[in-house]
Amino acid sequence: MRHCAEQADLYLRLSLDREGKTAIERQEADCRSWADRDGLVVRSVHVDRGRSGYQDVVRSGFDNARYAVTSGEVGTLVVWKLDRLSRKGMGEVGPLLDEFERVGGRLVSVMDRLDSRMPGARLAISSLSEWARQEAETQGERIRHAKQFLRRRGRWIGGRPPYGLAVDKGSGQLVPDTETSVYARLIADEALAGTPLVKIARLLNEYEVPAPRGGLWQVGTLSQLLRAPAFAGLLPETRVVWDEERQRRKYTGVVMPYRDEVSGDPVVVGEGIVSVEEQQTILAVLETRTRMRADGVRHPIRESVHLLTGLLHCGVEGCGVRMSMSGASYVCQGVRLGHTCAGARVMAASVERAVGEAFLERSAGKVATAWERGGLRARRSLLRGGIERIWVTKAEGRGRRFDPAKRLRIDWAEGPGRNGAQKGVVVLNHVEARTCPGP
Questions:
Q1: Do 249 and 240 touch, CB atoms closer than 8 A?
Q2: Alpha-carbon span 276 to 207, nearest angstrom
Q3: Cβ neighbours for 439, distance < 8 A, ≥ 6 positions apart
Q4: pLDDT, tens only, 228-243
Q5: How far apart are CA 219 and CA 225, in angstroms?
Q6: Where in 197-334 does DSSP place strands (E)?
Q7: Which of 36, 338, 384, 386 is deepest in the core (most CB within 10 A)?
Q8: Which residue has the higher pLDDT, 54 or 177?
């Protein structure tokens, strides 16, 4: 087994392949030639393809290459040029040199003709590293100005457009792709119909429709596509925040429609697969399927199989817990969980029929067709658009079995709701519902 001093690792990086698909291979060939001339055996090659050397991104290849030397596995790390190693200046390169020096390792830059063991090499490496950092900052500023110029004119600013769309070379705007737009529209139509994303992915995979980057469709891919502003023909923009610690701009990964600096309106960048209104409808449906939890990540919500689940809440004083189905009735979950609440209870068939009839009557027939033709999911969506919450209270006294005062009855009134907005109030004889403005 060879001693680590006789072995070298290579580190290769390419942020964007502007030099062709062989750029990484050319870097490796030059580095291997240097290692052969220096009598070293290449043990391993670490690659970061499509990773910036300036932005704060994870570079597993860089981390592995650094560890190979600091752990003593190899004695030399070879890079093609210093700007391939890093564009963060001596803030990143300096500590790396210190770590290499402590373990007797060295850094070699082939095209710069630098070896960290050479006299004065650290000063040269420091200078070139800072030049690489300055160049990255200048280039970034030029790119930002160029993108701003294109944004003002409603032109695509670069990168791969969403699935189903292509960039017209003449106008620089988005147009439907001749090969994939039909499948993109199919995805949109299924999403508008309320089809779960997992079923849409299964349908596409069943008919062997390739995903945007090849392979199988996934729920995440579909969600990202349907949420993309460009899918509706709008210019996208990645939200940027100021990093106080590093004193520079930082991309968040949140994509939103770019808005004109003067009018504040979203900028159209061509023809989308869906209209803006259709995308808003799709997004509203997707939002109802996820919930923001304590970890800050949206998680799926299990689809309910009952019409009023999530709307009914126990109106007993001091409770307010949601109600869920138990047998043929909606029951306060507090009772089922052993809480001290006396618990409200209401027959499911009766309250669902009463709420539905009152909702249709109040809508003056505007949603009658959608209600009649729609299934459970569609009806739940309509109710949620008009009803915020239904409070169910216990009836006062037992009364006679067929006492008219104890039967379900709905009265609509007006009252202040959340944030001071006017909301309707539904009263179902011992059942009270706060609602959004009527449809």
A1: yes
A2: 28
A3: 362, 363, 366, 367, 382, 385, 386
A4: 999 999 988 877 666 6
A5: 10
A6: 236-243, 248-257, 290-292, 298-300, 312-314, 323-326, 329-332
A7: 386
A8: 177
